[in-house]
Every structure is written in structure tokens, then in C-alpha cells.
Amino acid sequence: MDKGIDPRDHCRDAASWLKLIRRHLKRQGADRFRDGFQFREISFAEMGSLHGQVPPLFAADIPLELLESIGRLVEGRVLSYDEIRSFWEQGDVENPIPLRDLLQICALAGKLEIKPGIASLLDDYRVCSRCGERHQLERIHCPLCGRPSCAVCLACRSLGEVRSCRELYYGRVWEEPDIRKVYPDLRPQLHFQLSRAQAEAAAEFKRYVERWLGYYCGAERQGDDLPENTPQGHTSWGGEKAGGKGAGESLGFAQPWNSWAAAACGQAAAEGSANSCLVWAVCGAGKTEIAFEGLALAVGAGLKAVFAVPRRDVVVEVAERAQAAFPQISVTALYSGAEHPKSLGQLVVATTHQLIRFSGYFDLAILDEADAFPYAGSAVLHRALGRAVKPCGLKVYMTATPVPAMIQAARRGKVHLITVPVRHHGYPVPVPQVILCRQHLVPKQRRDSTARGGYRGRFSDLNLPPQFWLKLKESLAAGSRVFVFVPRIWLVEAVAGEIRGCPELAGVPVFAAHSRNPKRDRHRELFQKTAPSVMVATSILERGITVPKADVIVAYAHDDLYDARALIQMAGRSGRDASYPTGKVYFIAAAETKAIRWAVECLQEINEDARRRGLLVPGTQGEHCCTRAIGNVIV
Ligand SMILES: [Zn+2]
Ligand SMILES: [Zn+2]
Q1: What does the radius of gyration of the chain's CA atoms come to, in whole angstroms?
Q2: DSSP assigned state of 158
Q3: How far away, in angstroms, is 314 Cα from ligand 1 center?
Q4: Domains in the chain, number
Q5: Does residue 428 form part of some domain?
Q6: Pick from 370, 368, 359: which is nearest to 393 by CA?
Q7: Quick one: 525 and 385 in the same domain?
Q8: Which ligand is nearest to the CA of 142?
Q9: Mean pLDDT taken over the chain
Q10: What pLDDT band is residue 561 in, cutting at 50, 70 and 90?
Q11: Residue 118: which domain range?
């Protein structure tokens, strides 16, 4: 053979590498993984048939650019083979070598780790390598590997299937601080004026990020000085290529970030709230722009940031706003169904689920609507956020209604708290008036209850009290749009039918929105355009809708389905518009529950905070804040 290489050497090397890979996989509990995984072993016969060509297993013969582009593709990501292949095919890199071979070579060179999709550490103990799920794993008869009990993860199936016999690729992050793209004078370009409350919060957030950057970059430099953290041959492709020793080291999975991160964590722990922050802003206060100043500092220092939002439509909108604010950096929008970008920008705007595909990639993560579906209550997404951000990276939670645990953490100093207690127009948030009526119970759904029930006097089957009709008529007479929230889907049509049937409200358009109504977007549009009008809805509308001049009636507010956060969100639909900043909110309930009390007290506390800080428009303080009495009307 040319280059003076004896084919026997290749085989010896290959055998020892394969032994190392096997040992590593076995250590991870992936003993059975071998069945489904195809190692590329090269026999003597195959070597002979190559007619002098060097087998493609060896990095020495593979163009460096190919390996670099694979490295860039998987950096900081957790991807299945199919995902990598589809992303790879979208790029126009010429590749004569089988992709699996390339990935194996990258693994040997320490650019990525290969893990079984579902690791079985013990016989009955399996963990999904992508989302960390332990319980929602289903055993199936697998057509791919032929085994009768191949495990499939149900928790992260929406992102593509993960199973025992398929591998996952964990791309490592190997960046050096001095080759980062730095923008020293990056400032957001906003096309409007921040309100005083927003500007104060933005300045405080900026100071906080500045302090965090001090720890973070300081720790990073410390790590840089430690020689054992940057093993030779791994920091760049240009250096020593993966040889026998390099491969052994890379399979030992040294974590370059961990040691300096530990130093930073020690310092951070002393400070308490050094790397997590809660931005608590009232509904409609404009949270996104508050983060931009601080974000500019981090991105300007060359760090990578992600802005995670719950819904796909919001991703596109926030990405556009961020790109307009930072024209000089590249902003990437990631959501399911979007085309995969060739490379990720310094700022990524993504749905929360996309975080599952990242590992130690981001320095800063901002989680918008941290209390909302899907993040709230999802252990999978909690873990995903923890893993997507580097150790000691900054996590920022933004919400209008933080869970009590979050507030407690803030009070104990574990989380840095920034509040925005007032909307841009400077009026206090409307505090709900609680109307108690013992007969106002959630009715039982009757089989014969038609969608268009007629108006049947004072107390119909729906137990709507006279106070409900009175408040509804008052608001409509004043020319307002009225949200009527109900806790069940069937109640939406029933209550809407009842309102339509009321002779005194003839001619007022009544819309209905719930998750099973296909016309709900159309109804929402019409409602925004027509005044006066009524929108009967389930909590589907509780977030993300801004309607000018709106009042809110929450019927059956005592229902178990309504927690304090849902009540606050529903109340938050009112008084958002500057032309009608003092909306009216009524909670109609059979009894005053803990959730109702908590919601009312919370809103009063927010207004009190705004008053103390002098953020309210003069003349509005007394009306809403100084009285703590709740107007209870017992019917
Ligand atoms: Zn999973
Ligand atoms: Zn299988």
C-alpha cells in the first residue's frame, strides 16, 4: 500500500478503537445496544479488495472541512441519526463517505458522543437519553431491531421517536473565548419609547447581567488557564488528529466546562441569586423589550442566548422584533416545521420544546411565560432547560403570574427578582370585584342540553345570577367588549346561547371560543373589531389576546379548574388599552376560594408596589389601591 502503511496496523487500530467504544457503551448500560448498532469493522478480505485505497475509517484521509462541518452541525445539540442526515442533506456539502462513518470518526476525535436512545442501566431501569424520562417508556415489538421488548420514549415522541436500538449524538461544545464574535457597543434599537416602569426594569436587568458576566467570564478565563481542561488535539481540528491516545482520552469524556464552572458556582452560591432571575411583570407590561438591554450585553460579549416562548406563532413574532432591534447580529427562529438553518445565530428564538435538542450550548436562556403550558408542570422541559444552558449560565424566567414556589425562592434570595408592576399607560391593574352567590354552582351537563338554550328567566339551568346579567348589561351599555370566561367547553356554547336568547341584549353579537371550535380564530378577529360584543370562552383565550376597551366576567370562578394564576391571567385581559385603562373585572363565584383570595391579594399587592415606587399616573392611586375591602354582594 502507498503511504507506507501496513494494512495489519489499520486492523489493529480499528480493533482497539472498537474495543474502547464497546467498553464505553457498556459502562453506560448500553450492553444490548450492540445488537442494533452497526460497527464498521474492516476484514482482511475487504482490505485486499480496496486495491490500495486507504479504508475510509481513518481520519487522516478525510477532508478536514467535512469533519468541521459535521462538528458545527452537531455542536451543543442532541440529535438522532435521521435528524443529522436530514440537516446534512439540506446543506450542500459534497460527501463521498457514509455519514455514519463520519459521525463515528467525530466521536473518536471527541467532537461528539454517541449514546443509546434509551439507556438501560439495570434490567428494569431505563432512561431516555434525550429527555431524561424514566416512566413513560413503552416496550414494543420493534420492527427495526427485531427484539420483542425494545423501549420507545413517549414523553419526547413529538420531536421524533427515540428507541433503545437507535443511537443519539451529543455534540460537544468546544469553543475558545478568544475566537468569539464580539460586538462591544451592541445596543438594542427600539422603535418606541419604553415606559418608566419598563425602563427601570430594563436598567436593573442590565445591571444584573453585567454582574453575572463578571463571574461568568472571569470563571471562563480561570478555566482557560488550567492545562488539563484543554486536552491537546481536541480544541481544534487543525491540531493533532485523533490518534490512539487521543481516541482513548476522548472516550474518557472529559468535561471541559465543569471545572471552571464549579469555581463559578462556588462564587455564585455565595451570592445566592447569581444565575437565575425572575422578571415578574403584570399582564400587558411588555416583557420582551425589558430583556433586550441585558441581552445586548451578553450577545455583545460573544455569548449565545436563547429566547424560549411557548407557542410557534409567538416565535416568529419575537424573532422579527429581535432582528429589528439587533440588525447587526443574526437571529435564528427554531420551531417544528421550520426549515433547519445552516448555522445557528448568536440569538436563537425557539419554542420551549426545541430546548430538548440542546446540551450545554447556551450561556443565557430567557424563558417567556414560564408559568404557562407547556413549561409549567413539565418535568421534561425543566430538565431540557437545565441541560441546554451551560453550568452557571444565566436562566431568566419571565411571567405575569409566577408560581408560589418561584416567589418564595425570590424572597429567600435564591432567585433575583425584578418587578414591573404597571402597564405602559401607568394606570393600576384592575382589581376584580368578587360577587358571591350561593346558587351559582357549575351545572351538570344534561344529555338533552342543546347548544342554543333559550333565556329562561332569573335562574335557569345554568345558575347564572341576576348580578351576572346586571354587570353584563352595564358593560355593554357602556360600549365595552365583554369577555365571559367559563370553566367547561360545553358551557361555552350553553352560556353563549343563553346570552343570545336574552331579549334585552338582542342585536349584540355573541362569539364563542374554545379549543374544539374550528372557527375560534375567526370569532376572535370579529370580537376584536366589534363593540359592543360578548366573547364567551374557556381559558384558551386567557393569554396573548389584547382587545381594546374590554371588561371581564369570570363565571363559576370558584371552580377547581381555576387556579390563582389562571384567574390573574383572565383578569389581565381588561384595562390593557391606553384609551380605556380602567377596565372592570368581576369574579362571580359560589364561594370565595383560596385561589380567588390569592389572585385578588396578588393584584392589590402589585398596585401597592407601583404606588410606592411612584409609577402610577397621578390621581389614580386612591381609587384602586388604598382599599383592601372586596366588594362582596351576597344574593
Ligand atoms: Zn424521551
Ligand atoms: Zn428496536
Answers
A1: 29
A2: G
A3: 25
A4: 3
A5: no
A6: 359
A7: no
A8: 2
A9: 76
A10: confident
A11: 2-171
Nearest to 295 by CA among 397, 385, 205, 193: 205
C-alpha cell at 193: 419609547
CATH number for position 415:
3.40.50.300
Residue 178 has pLDDT above 80, yes or no: no
Residues 134 and 54 in one domain: yes
Nine cell digits for residue 106: 467525530
Residue 149 pLDDT level (bands cut at 50, 70, 90) = confident
Examine the domain organization and report whether 132 and 225 are in the same domain. Answer: no
**Interior CA angle at 27 toward 21 and 29, to 5°?**
110
- If asked whether residues 568 and 537 sit together in one domain, one would say yes
Residues with CB under 5 A from ligand 2 (ion): 142, 144-145, 150, 165
- Looking at 357, 390, 420, the residue that finishes a domain is 420
User: Does residue 154 lie within any of the structural domains?
Assistant: yes
Task: Give per-residue pLDDT as tens, 580-627.
Answer: 888 899 999 999 999 999 889 888 888 888 888 888 887 775 444 333
The pairs formed by 125-129 with CB atoms below 8 angstroms and a separation of 24 or more are 126/151, 126/164, 128/153, 128/155, 128/156, 128/162, 129/78, 129/162, 129/168
Give the ligand whose atoms come closest to the C-alpha of residue 127: 1
Q: Residue 100 C-alpha to ligand 2 middle, in angstroms?
A: 18
In a domain? residue 395:
yes
pLDDT at 182 over 60: yes
The mean per-residue pLDDT over the stretch 358-385 comes to 85
pLDDT digits (tens, 9 = 90+) for 492-541: 888 998 898 888 888 899 988 887 777 777 888 888 888 889 999 887 66
For residue 358, the CA-to-ligand 2 centroid distance in Å is 24
Let me know whether 159 and 194 are in one domain. Answer: no
- Secondary structure letter of residue 504 according to DSSP: G
Give me the percent of the chain exceeding a pLDDT of 70: 74
Starting from the CA of residue 149, give the closest ligand.
2
Q: Are residues 437 and 415 in the same domain?
A: no
User: Residue 155 Cα, ligand 1 centroid: separation in angstroms?
Assistant: 5
Ligand nearest the Cα atom of residue 126: 1
Same domain (yes/no): 369, 415: yes
Counting every residue, how long is the chain?
Answer: 635
Is the same domain home to 449 and 594?
A: yes
